[in-house]
Amino acid sequence: MDFKECGYSLANKEQMRKTSALTFQSTEKDAKKDTHFENLMTNLSNAYASDLLPFKDGKDLTECFLLQVVDILLHYIKKSFDVKSKILDFHHPHQLLEGLEGFNLELSDHPESLEQLLVDCTDTLKYGVKTGHPRFLNQLSSGLDVIGLAGEWLTATANTNMFTYEIAPVFTVMETILLKKMYEIIGWGETEGDGIFSPGGSISNLYGILIARYKQYPEIKRKGMTELPCIVLFVSEQGHYSVKKAAAILGIGTDNVIEVKCDERGKMIPAELEKNILQVKRKGQTPFCVTATAGSTVLGAFDPLQDIADICERHGLWMHVDAAWGGGLLLSRNYSHKLSGIERANSVTWNPHKLMGVPLQCSAILIREKGLLEACNQMQARYLFQPDKPYNVDFDTGDKTVQCGRHVDIFKLWLMWKAKGTSGFEAQINRYMELAKYFYKVLKKKDNFKLVFDAEPEFTNVCFWYLPPRLKHIPKGFERDQELQKIAPKIKAQMIEEGTAMISYQPCGDKVNFFRMVFSNPATRQTDVDYLIDEIERLGKDL
Amino acid sequence: MDFKECGYSLANKEQMRKTSALTFQSTEKDAKKDTHFENLMTNLSNAYASDLLPFKDGKDLTECFLLQVVDILLHYIKKSFDVKSKILDFHHPHQLLEGLEGFNLELSDHPESLEQLLVDCTDTLKYGVKTGHPRFLNQLSSGLDVIGLAGEWLTATANTNMFTYEIAPVFTVMETILLKKMYEIIGWGETEGDGIFSPGGSISNLYGILIARYKQYPEIKRKGMTELPCIVLFVSEQGHYSVKKAAAILGIGTDNVIEVKCDERGKMIPAELEKNILQVKRKGQTPFCVTATAGSTVLGAFDPLQDIADICERHGLWMHVDAAWGGGLLLSRNYSHKLSGIERANSVTWNPHKLMGVPLQCSAILIREKGLLEACNQMQARYLFQPDKPYNVDFDTGDKTVQCGRHVDIFKLWLMWKAKGTSGFEAQINRYMELAKYFYKVLKKKDNFKLVFDAEPEFTNVCFWYLPPRLKHIPKGFERDQELQKIAPKIKAQMIEEGTAMISYQPCGDKVNFFRMVFSNPATRQTDVDYLIDEIERLGKDL
């Protein structure tokens, strides 16, 4: 059987029901084949998972079922990229829990037919959010890369685990190659560099701080922290919350994370860092690590890495750079200078699933000193990491991680790199930077929009308020803020209700709710930027 | 365009090259359509990722490319289930690094053609390990579930993030439903239960211990562990190494994990646990948590949960049950009694990606007391978890986790549950238990095989040595052990070399390398069991 036999389009439930009612028009001459195919189609309504492979006669049905799933997915992909389609069809949690037009999420003791499963797949996508839509601008990770998607489909099919070369030979070698590529791009020397892919930037940041602690106090691994002095780390007040989270988990405590003041652009002020370090020392506590941010979440700020590296060197502190968001910029010759000094870091978090557009999840923790990662985490489980294997067991990565089993996050990145080359990533990222500049220029000209920081954007984040006419003439101050605070949530709620666009908002420090525009979606065009501005005005002007 | 236009089979590189050289025989009448299709085919060798969506004319090419990827995957799936195909085509790491017959893993600055990417996909699978093969018995997670696979393909296409209901409305509600189902199965009351899906059992165990610590010392979150007494946890000597790993990460220290002695079956001895607790208290240290194991990794042992629960109650200790491997057995009415007492646990790790056969990764941490998970982990990041959203923000799960972004691991499990019903999982698991009993009975009759523990298996693990004729008559003791230690690795190396089967081995305590057979692969049949025994004899008899 090939695609021809199973080939028809299942755009929606109605169409599917029609199809399974045998309205399919075959162009094949072979009557026998036709009958076989028609039987499979009829069977879907009374065929079950147990009829699929590994059931011995399940080969054709398996192929037929999977091709129909793929047809649903292809239809969804095309719709995702279609600017005229809605981003979402919003429903409240209680509506989904109660069930919607035959979409029942409850689970039963008994199996459902394969036909019902296809309907469920269609409905799952129908009530979800099209994160690949050109006007989905809600997160740092957005867009749908077709090559990355193909990579994920293959990864799911291979269904293996990164812990040993034994069962993931190709993927573990790909990881080695990609990590090396990333060390080189950071600017580390040939003999430096170690790392691993982890389940997201928060875990990568946790790794950085864990290794920093291990480097200074290796005995903690065995003895714990009880007998230690109070150790302290530093991050800017605009740094990601995962740094505090890591401190809580590691037993360091959030009180021992000092938030260093930022300038008005959101960059850590080096003099403030040094002042904080000296204060901590004076209190008899022990500084051990600074987390600098390269591309902050809300404002897109880059901390001054060279200055921070100087301070870390002066005080003997580990320098971790959280470049989860900004790391991708290293691939652009025009903009990589913004991360100048990253080569002096002891560890770096870099999420290819953000700026580089790799499907979720794909995050790397990179450590400059070889051997630390393994020394810190290894437990030498003999049932997995036998020394008497027939290959070079250095490729068994499982003893370097905080996990045991580890999802294969590498193949999609590898395939995308093959597909685009470094130059393809560069072109894509440069385009985001141009879009951000364009957006800034347009906003600047409009007197009902106000920029949170009025200068050409440093990164692809552009933060701004929309001021409805009735607020424009209230002078800046508490009264206006009270009202302005409510504007972004109201516009966003309406956008979601209508499904026209998605953009995030938040308060920050003393600034009330503002929108954060961010470019990392390859489908977004200048026309979508123009649309978004018009849409905000349309939804906000009478608020 | 539908499947017919793009429909042809790409079994291997040669075939693909032929196809792209336009040897495809269309049965379509429409000459225009034919030309369009043929153009796309020709184009693959000089088409690039940048020609795919979101490029404005990329729709047909995108569909064509993805369908060809799917064709490669379908071919692989059918081969995986074919007992006559090799499980792997073994090569050493240096061979993969150097490149194999046109499979070059190095990355370049420039893009490769779509045709080359398809070749790379084929090669990636060719040099990998078929974990769905009926004779892949190497890990606790094995097999390829077709419904789960379809679920993963959809998940990848939806490419979203679990942290907010806002961008994952269907998936977050599905998680709520599945967690509730799991609390019910564990036997917790209606008002109890909280939980989250995490990136694997090690992280789930870390959650259990983290929450246990938080419950007793909530101030650690802020203040860290420095001012605390030395806190101690307990796990059996057969428990998973992730418990020690978690202690190292959390700043508790591996020295403060007491390994409790087991009986000869690998079960924790309750009297030993109590003795250890009293010893620790006498030393002035503070016990806070016991991790019991339900289904140990190597021997498949179940700790006596009721007895352990009694001891935990008596001493006021948190009881965590690591049921990563054994949890699935709760779905079998015949065997769930082996986990009797799990309803008294404070937290449970349960990995549907193991016994239940869900594709990697899918692991849950379940906590009996509501609210603790969020209280322990929340950081209230205002850019993600805005309180002024237009829906019930209880469904934003991101503040419960140790992560920020979180992969969607729920849909494949939800779809499999719909597809099989609870009864389908039960039947599958019962079959594994029967296979284990069968395997045990066959081995028992053979005098060149020796069981590590000679009694009917408790779970699907069956551990055994193969004794080549020359060792059979050496008396038990150091000399025989020295030789026996080398047998399993040699047989395994030969199996890998020939690609006929995969089964793990390890030493354990004072026992030298033995094989661990384990049943969790739905494709494995009794004939594969017979084959494996013959294969071990064939490869081992002259060693």
UniProtKB/TrEMBL annotation, chains A, B:
Lyase as a keyword of this entry, yes or no, is yes
Keyword Lyase recorded: yes
Cofactor(s) this protein cannot do without? pyridoxal 5'-phosphate
Query: Which GO biological process categories is it annotated with?
Result: gamma-aminobutyric acid biosynthetic process
Question: What's a single GO CC term here?
Answer: presynaptic active zone
Q: Which Gene3D superfamilies match?
A: 3.90.1150.170, Type I PLP-dependent aspartate aminotransferase-like (Major domain)
Residues crossing the lipid bilayer are: none
Q: Which Pfam families does this one have?
A: Pyridoxal_deC (PF00282)
**Keywords tagged on the record:** Decarboxylase, Lyase, Pyridoxal phosphate
Q: Which residues carry this modification: N6-(pyridoxal phosphate)lysine?
A: K354
| A molecular function GO annotation | glutamate decarboxylase activity
Which protein family is it in? Belongs to the group II decarboxylase family.
Q: How does it assemble?
A: Homodimer.
Q: What is this protein called?
A: Glutamate decarboxylase
- In which organism is this protein found? Diceros bicornis minor
